[in-house]
Design goal:
This protein is an all-alpha fold. The protein has a single domain, classed as Arp2/3 complex 21 kDa subunit ARPC3 (Orthogonal Bundle), CATH 1.10.1760. It has six helices and no strands. α2 crosses α4, α2 packs across α6 and α4 runs antiparallel to α5. The radius of gyration is 18 Å and the shape is globular. The two termini are about 25 Å apart. The relative contact order is 0.12. The model has no long low-confidence stretch (mean pLDDT about 85).
């Protein structure tokens, strides 16, 4: 269920912007909330904010998802992070977004596979950025841990995005039916 330019909710630009704003806020909140998840592996997060970006990619397309991703990274960085953390987030976010878009359009993987691949690329990019910034490739020993964690977190996030996508499709169909019934 993709909402294209002619099918945007209500057909009105204001509603579309409101929906994107809600998704951007949700991505920021999810990214903030996951900081409190008790994951015993340093540097590993669930990627729930990225799951929202994935959901927007499937619902609204590339431009909208890219906008949500940038807002999430910048606002989260300014509110909860620091410039170095933002550098990691931008690098990981851009590369994982590129993977999401490429794999989604390839039609080889479903949303769960796209999510898992993007999570692995996100983690891999961040470890390479850290190694470059610290000028030490000794950090590469941690890469296998981050790859495994990326697959697990990516699958979990992808399943949640799939469930949300299905729920939104059901809700949208009920709304369309209720609007049709009111007109008769």
């Amino acid at each position: 269920m993709k909402i294209n330019n002619t099918q945007k909710p209500g057909g009105h630009r204001a509603k579309y912007v409101a929906y994107i704003g809600v998704f951007a806020a949700l991505a920021i909140i999810m990214g903030w909330a996951e900081r409190f998840a008790p994951i015993p592996i340093p540097g590993v997060r669930l990627g729930l904010g990225n799951g929202v970006v994935l959901l927007v990619l499937y619902l609204f397309g590339v431009k909208s998802a890219f906008g949500v991703m940038l807002v999430k990274i910048l606002v989260s960085g300014f509110l909860f992070g620091n410039p170095i953390g933002m550098a990691y987030s931008i690098a990981g976010g851009l590369t994982s977004f590129l993977v999401m878009v490429t794999l989604k359009h390839s039609n080889v993987f479903g949303i769960v596979g796209v999510s898992a691949a993007a999570a692995v690329v996100h983690n891999t990019t961040q470890i390479f950025v850290a190694a470059h910034m610290l000028q030490s490739f000794a950090l590469m020993y941690y890469l296998p841990v981050l790859i495994i964690a990326g697959v697990i977190a990516g699958v979990l996030t992808g399943v949640l995005a799939l469930l949300a996508l299905n729920r939104l499709a059901i809700a949208a169909s009920h709304w369309v039916l209720s609007q049709t019934n009111h007109k008769t």
